[in-house]
Amino acid sequence: MKVQSAMFYFPEEVIEHIFSFLTHHPDRNTVSTVCKAWYKIERLSRCEVFVGNCYAIRPDRAAARFPGLRSLTLKGKPHFADFDLVPPDWGGLAGPWIEAMARSCPNLEELRMKRMVVSDESLELLVHAFPNFKALVLVSCEGFSTDGLAAVARSCKSLRELDLQENEIEDRGPRWLNSFPDMCTSLVSLNFACLKGEVNLKSLERLVCRSPNLKCLRLNRAVPVETLAKIMNQCPNLEDLGTGSLLADQFSEAYVSLISALQKCKKLRSLSGFWDASPLCLLAVYPICANLTGLNLSYAPTVQGQDFINLIQHCVKLLRLWVLDSVGDKGLAVVASACKELQELRVFPSDLFAAGPATVTEEGLVAISTGCPKLNSLLYFCHSMTNSALITVSKNCPNFTRFRLCILEPRKPDPATNEPLDEGFGAVVKTCKNLRRFSISGLLTDQVFYYIGKYAKALEMLSIAFAGDTDQGMTYVLNGCKNLRKLEIRDCPFGDGALLADVTKYETMRSLWMSSCDISLRGCKALATKMPSLNVEIINEWEAEMEENLNNGVAEVISNNNNKHINNGNDERKVEKLYVYRTVGGPRTDAPDFVWTL
Amino acid sequence: MSPPQDHHFAGGGGGGVVATGEDLKETELRLGLPGSAPHDKKLGLTLDLLPSKGFASAGAKRGFSDAIDTSSRDNGGVLFSNAVAASGSASSKADASAAKEKGPAKAQVVGWPPIRSYRKNTMATATNQVKTKDEASSAGPEPKQNSNSCLYVKVSMDGAPYLRKVDLKLYSGYKELSIALEKMFSGFTSGGGKDESHSETRTKDLLNKSEYVLTYEDKDGDWMLVGDVPWVMFVESCKKLKIMKGSDAIGLAPRAKNQN
């Protein structure tokens, strides 16, 4: 009691000052639970909020709790939405959040959103409601057009960052770039690489000219080499460049100009783009390779074979490399010998549908692991993998924090032994004590889940597809992985037994996704009944479809609270898609008709 | 508890079966009636389209793709090893029954391989341009993958518990689509699909179209029999597909449609 009363007399300013050293948001979340006084101090002084699931809390509540908010990060749709597993119009709307912030958090400066649906109107509201707005980062979002971008450009007095990564943006013409006012000179980072259409090149050049602080610039494919050269000449301090189209004729003025411009950019550390790159343009890049820490060639199918080898062998300081599998095992061997500092490697499939000769196999991965012992993050698409390769890789690289291996053909065994890949992936979890993210593929039995449950104690996110034999597999994971936050499963034979094995576990996690598994409506209802603090949502397009058919094509409006489907008929019906997440926001009020909250 | 999964994920990435001697034998093309080879699931409407080449090397698989892939470029390539996947378990791998897939059918799995749509769409255009540059002349008709997007339509089937989706742009004609759909839904018709001979009969029924009929809903909301209009026109106007029992589809006589 004495201690408690002593705390009441402890000046708030001092506590606040102490809290200012806590930047990691889980830490801030923790201190806010100590007592009411700390809760209040913490919430009023909080500047950054991270909401990993936009439906975990109502926007109003979040905005009211943190009125001093300056930076908000939001994630919307489940991860598997990236792969078309979530129907359009599922949700993840940014509008309510922006509106709530507009009402309660006038100091908002930064908004980062991933997999959310943003409308042009929301973007308008965003730039008008927040006078200090500085940074907008949109990753894998949709629902807006270049008109929305124009609104952002036009109205932000001191826009520092406009970063558009892999969004679906409706292109309504190139004029949005003109919307940056002449007095806008504050840009530090501009990324419009994902825009598919033309841009106004003159406007672009003028914009770059008046942005002396520009450090990161990522152009889209419509920007030709001539413009790139002009731009590079204007910003020798550029650190991160995404090229436009790198198609240039031999000895053209543009090409010559590009070479000299690039040589002036002593601070350039990261390169991406390389659209349509001709070997000649690659030559121009050699002189800066030695200082590169990041290189993204994953949209450049023209860079392969000897061209790739010539390029990569100069990149001795590379930390991060993204490539296509067309570089082949041979290309990866060169990476292994040249890029000794490599920490992150992503190898994407170049051709999804034909087994080309120059793709990568387990040999490439083993070579990398041998040459690059600092590797800690891997995304690798390949046609086949062996247990022995995986065992070797994990011995060579015990520092993996992210390990994602995708064998293109589902349920493919080790071709050398015809066995499942349980031992290989098991070796990874046994050796890599810091593994936080894991994606597995190939032929896998319950055994691999036994290993994961037993050894992957730091694991936070697990992605499983076409794996396992019985409910026991999923149960191993739920029981063993103490730090699990996200579990996503598709096409596995896990049923109600697995789903209900440890229901309180889901309260410790952000979310669970299960699609095309063996769970039934009965099981999902049981989960919902036992755990009222979870939203148990079913996505059943089939049922909505049936309803439509029954009504001769006239789709009946099925409100979210209509229990007609949920309670009529057979509870043994299999559930197509299940999304379970913890929330303090109650059932969704914006769910479409194919999403049922149980 | 065996969900009919074995049959409908056979798709996705490109092959990759290591061509050992044994495998080569299994992938050897033969002319023959459906069901003549043991465990042979399906088939041969398209046998006559296939050249009877032998395979001599690991590169042969690619050669095969190229050989038959005259009208469907790039993404229309054939997936053989899917078949290996379709066998589902290590035990049936020995049969490599799947490796006997003879049609250029491509069954597919939504969302596999796990690549962001943005990347898929972008690479489709990037790759097309590369290949167009590389080719001296284009032998067959155009790449149907001209546009950037996939064209997913829902496929429902009377009695099946799940909807599926297919990307119409991956097929070059009705035969491919038909075979792909048969593979996708064969598990449902036999209520499990594990019994090979059983599904073989079922398949024959499907092939003969005595039991099921493939219909689609067009832009105007009318339900039509699939196959009446030219393929390209069909792809443009198809909104949904439905596999109906033959008896239910009697009202849908093929009719000449006035194109708008």
From TrEMBL, chain A:
The cross-references to InterPro entries, in alphabetical order and at most eight, read: COI1_F-box (IPR041567), F-box_dom (IPR001810), Leu-rich_rpt (IPR001611), Leu-rich_rpt_Cys-con_subtyp (IPR006553), LRR_dom_sf (IPR032675), Transp_inhibit (IPR041101)
Question: Per its UniProt record, what Pfam families does this chain match?
Answer: F-box_5, LRR_6, Transp_inhibit
* Domain F-box per the UniProt entry, residue ranges: 10-51
Q: Which residues form a coiled coil?
A: none
Pathway the protein takes part in: Protein modification; protein ubiquitination
The subunit field of the Swiss-Prot or TrEMBL record says: Part of a SCF (SKP1-cullin-F-box) protein ligase complex. May interact with auxin and auxin-responsive proteins.
Q: PANTHER family from the entry? A: F-BOX/TPR REPEAT PROTEIN POF3 (PTHR16134), PROTEIN AUXIN SIGNALING F-BOX 3 (PTHR16134:SF45)
Protein's recorded name: Auxin signaling f-box 2-like protein
Taxon lineage: Eukaryota, Viridiplantae, Streptophyta, Embryophyta, Tracheophyta
From TrEMBL, chain B:
Instruction: List the keywords (alphabetical).
Output: Auxin signaling pathway, Nucleus, Repressor, Transcription, Transcription regulation
Of the GO CC terms on this record, one is: nucleus
Q: Where, per UniProt, does this protein localize?
A: Nucleus
Residue stretches in coiled coil: none
Q: Does the keyword Repressor apply?
A: yes
Query: What PROSITE patterns would the database entry show?
Result: PB1
Supply the InterPro entries for this chain: AUX/IAA_dom, AUX_IAA, PB1-like
Region span, Disordered: 1-23, 123-146
Among Pfam families, the record links this protein to:
AUX_IAA
What does the record list as GO biological process? auxin-activated signaling pathway; regulation of DNA-templated transcription
Domain of life according to the entry? Eukaryota
Read off the SUPFAM superfamilies from this record. Answer: CAD & PB1 domains
Q: Which residues form the PB1 domain?
A: 150-246
Family, per entry: Belongs to the Aux/IAA family.
The role this protein plays is:
Aux/IAA proteins are short-lived transcriptional factors that function as repressors of early auxin response genes at low auxin concentrations.
Self-association state and partner proteins as the record states:
Homodimers and heterodimers.
Under PANTHER family, the record lists: AUXIN-RESPONSIVE PROTEIN IAA17
Protein name listed in UniProt = Auxin-responsive protein
Write down the species: Rhynchospora pubera
